[in-house]
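Recall from the previous lesson that a structure prediction takes nothing but the amino acid sequence as input. Here we apply that procedure to Amidohydrolase-related domain-containing protein from Oharaeibacter diazotrophicus. The sequence below is the only information supplied.
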Amino acid sequence: MYITPEGKEIFVVDGHTHFWDGSPENQRNVHGKQFIECFYGYHTALSPKEQLWPKEKFEKYSADDLYRDLFVDGPDDVAIVQSTYLKDFYKNGFNTIERNAAVAARYPERFIVNGAFDPRDGEKALEYIHFMKETYDIKGVKMYTAEWNGASKGWKLDDPDAYRCFELCEKLGIRNIHVHKGPTIIPLNKDAFDVHDVDHAATDFQGLNWIVEHCGLPRLDDFCWIAVQETNVYGGLAVALPFIHSRPRYFAEVIAELLFWVGPDKLLFGSDYGIWTPRWLVEKFWAFELPEDIARERGVQLTPEIKEKILGLNAARIYDIDVAAKKAAIAAGPMLAAAE
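The prediction returns the following tokens.
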């Protein structure tokens, strides 16, 4: 729960978090080292200096770190923890559903665990979707179209094998499809994160919600022109939001474009934990005001009501979270003491 300086309680759903193991012991090859070091580069480049972590903690933090940073020191009420396997780079996977589900089992009111699959696995991918639904009752998945799989260096959302998987997701009620469409991470291919295939998949699967994480950056225009047409396409602010600290005018340009094209009802907060922690992001976002010239030119505003939607109410709507019931359940659950 975030309490504003005015005393208002804001329900926060952190739509994009991770519980990874990028440690040297889990790295399969040089690409595992490159990948986590690139994440650390984003962390050090865009975080306030007082929020920087030692590299050793960044590579592998504990379940207690995760819980404390999100819910005790942090303002999150609910966190959606995303799965990303990267098994070509990591021996036991980078951020698997088993690892996520284990921590979520300790605090079931706090976490929503999303799965992941690779449509290039063919029939095994379909079997795995059934397994995740039956075992974890997932409501969503995270797609990583630039992930390597043997000789393949990526896939597209409108590939025939992908469509078979999305048909099954729709049938099983796995409605929220989070897709990394944004910045590249070495050694992955920037073009494999291109946003254009969202246009095809969102049109053909109207029963699914397509949450485009990172809003397609650096292809913001492409994302906006797609999302304004497709009523089931949403923008996840992970990676975009941290610019609020180091380049606030750039962030103002981005959020103003999103408000103009996509609108305040289809934008979701995400901290991208553990690249960034949610406390400083939420505090800066709540305090942020659009520069007058940017607001006037686009004809948009970033009001407290709009911020409240972005921070939690929009995600609550698409994940069927009853906010009042969730608040009561959290209040009745276990809670660690806040850090000194």
